[in-house]
Amino acid sequence: MTLALPGQEHVPKWLLDDLKKQPKSTTNTTCELRVMGTDEVMTCPVKQSTSVLEIKMFLAMKLGIDPGVMSVVTKQGCSWRIQTDSEEIARKVMVKGIKSFKRERHKWPSPIAIIGTGHAGLRQAMFFLKHKEYNFIVYDRKALVGGTSWIDQANTTSKLQTELGTYHLQYDEDNPVPKNMSTWPSTAELLQHFREVSEEYGIMPYCKMCTNIKEIKIKTGTKQEVQAEMQQRGWATQTYTLTLEPTDGTGDGRGDNIGATGAPCEDVDHSAVIMYPGNLTIPKRCELPGEDTFEGEISYAIMNDFDYGKVTGKQVAILGHGAFAVENLRTCMEFSCRQAYMVCRRKNLACPRVVSWFINQSVHPISGPLTMKSFLPMYNLLGYDPWAYHSVHANEKRTNVTINQKSRFGIGDVYFVANAMGICEVVEDEIKRVSAQHVHLQSGRKLEAQVILKLYGFNGNFDVDRLMNVKQMMGFWPDEDFRRYLIAEPIGVNATNFGGTSFSPGVRVW
After folding, report:
1. Class for domain 307-456, per CATH?
2. How far apart, in whole angstroms, are the C-alpha atoms of residue 105 and residue 457?
3. Any idea what DSSP says for residue 118?
4. For strand 272-275 and strand 484-486, is the pairing parallel, antiparallel, or unpaired?
5. How far apart are CA 282 and CA 285, in angstroms?
6. In angstroms, what CA-CA distances link 236 with 68, 474, 476, 482?
7. DSSP string covering 333-361, please?
8. Contact at 8 Å (CB) between 191 and 144?
9. Over the stretch 318-359, which tens digit does the pLDDT of each residue have?
10. CA–CA separation, 325 vs 176, rounded Å?
């Protein structure tokens, strides 16, 4: 690897003119750089004609500093002299004006705030500790770590749909894979895993539980101070004052029910705010016409609101076709329901388990066409053509494909086996009304059912936008502020290639 001349917009005109007039040597060599006053040495591959300015630009990019603060000193005879920017770099030089060839870590005056102790929030804390960043605090309104999705929304019967190998807190090249869990762990196993890893890796001392972030105020300096800082380094200091509201840890994720104790709030300053609000936050709710006349059980089948023992030997209408609906179908089969109907306006793609394994073990993302071909053996059992689904957009030869649907893949084989055996039927229709023992559809068909489970999915929580003072999002940064970071896993699918169906690899990248 050799140094290349930076973009022309950063190079003086006289140097560009000089390069045009006099061809430069392309002979490869090396240059030994030493930080003046230390023993720290770095050897760079260069060309014979590499200039001092190029070396300065390279170091400035590496260290995040202005190249003008550096001087390059070389020995000439019995004395030392400073090389000019236009000279060819000497073979051994000392660099003055820096303390190290390692980028200096910025020291924040106040702690960094992490909001949320779900999977992503705990991984962020682990990342900080791994890289020796100890100036942070993790907040959560719950009494236990684990996040809204697993503590509140999941049922005790819920299980991880993807594989343990790509869904665990230790997902990192330096950490071992957990050996004390099943391949598809239950809610209780995952929550225990979150607690054990948080304690083992030293996260808990940084966590302030039973604390709701009620408000975030942004403080900036005076106009003159902001202008001075912008001229000096391109960004101005801001402070984020978090209003901490004590809770009893019993909030159940139903919107405003946060479990506030009424105790006095406290204001704490932070230098940056990272928020992982989760994506399974507010369940969609819809009352069906005639619900009051239905003689069976009706439930949203989340938050342990329903006893699945009541589906044994019964006919069940599952309303929806997303990932949570597919999970509930599996649970109903495990509790020996007699017949299940999945009623939906249109079918979403579900993912066979072997395809999930295939995608997650791949080094490179699997192409959309190959993913669709991998679906075919299971869909052929049902007589369904996955290429005809509303979410699949392909060219005529099916060499390019995009899958775009509002729900994530429901992953599992029970969905396919139940449909192949006739125990489950997917009905594409809309519900007109409900009577004592039937679900009436717009097409005129009546489905006999003793249990109705409404799995409509989830909505985002706009309180998050208000809390983070979001006017517009630039990537994951509200209002282009690099000290405010806000991200949640997408609830749908929109992809042409598939590098994973699980959460941990993505969180590691975030």
Report:
1. alpha beta
2. 43
3. S
4. parallel
5. 9
6. 21, 18, 20, 11
7. HHTT-SEEEEEESSPPPEE-HHHHHHHHH
8. yes
9. 999 999 999 999 999 999 999 999 999 999 999 999 999 999
10. 33
Q: How far apart are CA 507 and CA 348, in angstroms?
A: 25
Phi, psi of 332 (to 5 degrees): -65, -40
Q: Residues 6 or more apart from 142 whose CB is under 8 A from it? A: 117, 151, 209, 210, 247, 249, 251
**Domain edges within the chain:** 8-96, 112-281+464-509, 307-456
- Domain 8-96: give its CATH code: 3.10.20.90
Task: Give me 345's structure tokens.
Answer: 């306006």
Provide the whole-model pTM: 0.85
- Residue 302, both tokens: 């989340």
Fold identical between 8-96 and 112-281+464-509? no
Q: Are 331 and 157 in contact (CB under 8 A)?
A: yes
pLDDT tens digit sequence for 41-84: 999 999 998 999 999 999 999 998 889 899 999 998 889 999 99
List the CATH code of the domain at 112-281+464-509.
3.50.50
